[in-house]
Amino acid sequence: MTAAAAAVPGAGRKPIYTSLFAQVVAMLVLGVVLGVVAPSFAQGLKFFSDVFLKLVSMIVAPIVFCVVVHGIAGAGDLRKVGRVGVKALIYFELMTTVALALGVILALVFGPGHGMNIDASKLDASALTRFADNAHKLKGEGIGGFLLNIVPSTAFDAFARNDVLQVLFFAVIFGVALALVGEPGKPVVKLVDATATVLFRAMGLIVRVAPLGVLGAVAFTVGKYGAGSLQQLVSLVVLFYVAVAIFVIVVLGAVMRMVGLNIFKFLRYFREELMIVLATASSDAVLPQIMRKLEAMGVEEEVVGLVVPTGYSFNLDAFSIYLTLAVVFIAQATNTPLSFGELLLVLGISLVTSKGAHGVPGSAIVILAATLNAVPAIPAIGLVLVLSVDWFVGMARALGNLIGNCVATVVIAAWDGALDKDRARKTLDAGTAPETPEEAAIAAG
Fold first, then answer.
1. Which of 317, 308, 234 is nearest to 270 (CA)?
2. pLDDT in tens, 122-166
3. How far apart (Å, rounded) are the C-alpha atoms in residues 23 and 30?
4. In this structure, are residues 358 and 309 in contact, taking their beta carbons and an 8 Å threshold?
5. What is the DSSP secondary structure assignment for residue 15, as one 8-state letter?
6. Which sign does the torsion angle of CA 266, 269, 275, 280 carry?
């Protein structure tokens, strides 16, 4: 920075229109306006969102593979990998249980479905047919079926179907094998690392069009559904958003305080990524950014590489809240009484069905159906009731899941002594991650 620039406050700052956060906010507002004043035209903009999410989906599985393999093989010490993995699974199960219980408690206390008096025999089952193609991903109920679905038929099949959970499973095996090979495997480790660098740069290019994706998603939603679409189910939608807020601020906030960090500063730090996720209802688009920011705030690279991709499939906090909240809502709406034993059954089944939902189109509906199948008293056709608001709750689901995974990474790193707390506090106080040399070069032209 020149002396003249330094003498003028703010002279060295970038124009606000170059900020991704500002661009996303501007497109979000524009999308709302277009949805209100020109709904037909706004619905036609959905292709922006579809293209953006398709671009993201194209690259997520390879990124997850490279990151996990590099995290395991690069760590060198498989005992550390195993230690971090065990701690991650313990934390994931604990938070998932808390989230599931929160959904049940809030549904019982506020009763969002009471008074609807829906006759299940008169509901139209044809609305569920579009999810039938995805039902095969959940075949085989129980833990056995879940574990069987983790193992891909072939590694190429997992990549071709973009099944992140199966890609993750193959990446763990490949990374462990690479670490065991030792010196002969180092060229492969370098190749994987170089490939990850290229993929991250590619994702950086894709994220530049995120504002257009936000415009398409918001314009379509407002244009097609409008405010009136929520009238019948507004209580469920509002309660779910409140539930996610409670979980983030109270539960995750308490966990962050144990680590010595502030949840509100943490949320401000990830504000750009959270805006993209909220508007597109997908957390895939920000995977590389959150990993870089977590490393920038002092979390060791190996922990980030292991915990974040694993959390995308195993630590779906907001999704878990929605599962139990929706089940109890459907029971209330159809006047189906639930015993304490049936509520415990819902909790137990949800612990299994909530895993691996990431990457399954319409996963909320499909997995909710699998959960309801374990409780015959509740009519599964009641799923029709929540279809019209699935997009709206999907935004909060994606947002809550992302925040939960970011917090999980920090907590597990602190638990394992892999977090620089002083650096974390300074970074969160600043509210932004320091630029990498590559980003500085791009910004300079």
1. 308
2. 555 555 555 555 544 444 445 566 567 778 888 888 888 777 678
3. 10
4. no
5. P
6. negative
Report yes or no: 398 and 390 within 8 Å, Cβ to Cβ. no
What mean pLDDT value characterizes the chain? 77
For the cut 70, the answer to whether the pLDDT of residue 2 exceeds it is no
* DSSP structure string for 245-314: HHIIIIIIHHHHHHHT--HHHHHHHTHHHHHHHHHHT-SGGGHHHHHHHHHHTTB-HHHHHHHHHHHHHH
Residue 270 three-state SS: coil
What is the rounded distance in angstroms from the CA atom of residue 394 to the CA atom of residue 400? 10
Chain centroid offset of residue 208 CA: 20
Token pair of 207 as six digits: 């994220």
Question: Please, what CATH class does the domain formed by 19-432 belong to?
Answer: mainly alpha
CA–CA separation, 422 vs 427, rounded Å?
A: 9
Closest of 113, 158, 53, 17 to residue 335, by C-alpha = 113
Q: Is residue 437 within 8 Å of residue 286, measured between CB atoms? A: no
pLDDT tens figures, 8-64: 444 445 666 666 667 877 887 888 888 888 888 888 888 887 787 778 778 777 877
Distance CA 83, CA 64 (A): 20
| 3-class DSSP assignment, residue 233 | coil
* Strand partners of residue 299: 419
The two three-digit tokens of residue 221, written as one number:
């939603």
For the chain, the structural domain boundaries read 19-432
DSSP single-letter state for residue 119: -
- Of 309, 396, 369, which Cα lies nearest the Cα of 99? 396
Report whether 196 contacts 63 (CB < 8 A): yes
- Quote the pTM value: 0.69
The residue behind tokens 């690392």 is 193
Instruction: Enumerate the β-bridge partners of residue 419.
Output: 299
Element (H, E) at 259: helix 253-259
The C-alpha R_g of the chain, in whole angstroms, comes to 22
Tokens 């995308």 found at: 312
